[in-house]
Write a structure and sequence with these properties.
Blueprint (H helix, E strand, L loop, with lengths): L17 H11 L3 E2 L29 E3 L7 H10 L4 E6 L5 H6 L5 E4 L17 E6 L7 H23 L9 H21 L1
Parallel strand pairs: 1-2, 2-3
Antiparallel strand pairs: 3-5, 4-5
Length: 196
Amino acid sequence: MINRVMFSSATDMWSTPQATFDELNRDFGFTLDVCASPENAKCARFFTKEQDGLAQDWGGAICWLNPPYGREIGKWVKKAGESRTLVVGLLPARTDTRWFHDHILGKAEIRFIKGRLKFGGSTNSAPFPSMIVVWNKPAGKDPLVEELSVFITELRESISRMEERCVDLHGQATRRGVVEVLEKILSRHDSKKEKI
């Protein structure tokens, strides 16, 4: 039997599919469900409708957001975008809306979900596509950038030492001395790379 409420505008509450949450939780480790009920909360700490997650401070938490999908959704999206904490939201993929353009596009990571989700244990798929939106994701350290930074630091230190040691009788840096120092730096750097 088809759940008529699910395919109508009679509800704007769409309970997060557990498998979808579990997969994201493995990556992010959520500590707060900002919009839940005791029956569908995904985290031990959560805000109910009565507590009004929009009026609460989300700071210091890793937030899960699956807001009501009605007219108020723009307020939730705005708060997520303006917060200074990591927020991951499950939202309808409504790319034609003002809230999408004002608070998501170019301001957050967007992961479109292939196919349609089944919300709240329903046997039928939702009548709309969905997306995962990640706001304020901490920048990961790029190993190549870190390696290059170490190399540049070593190079600067070595050039300073070279200036002290590689001078001829006339106070000029010798080409041979410069080349020898640079070869030592590169050789040391290459041996470090091989260990990694």
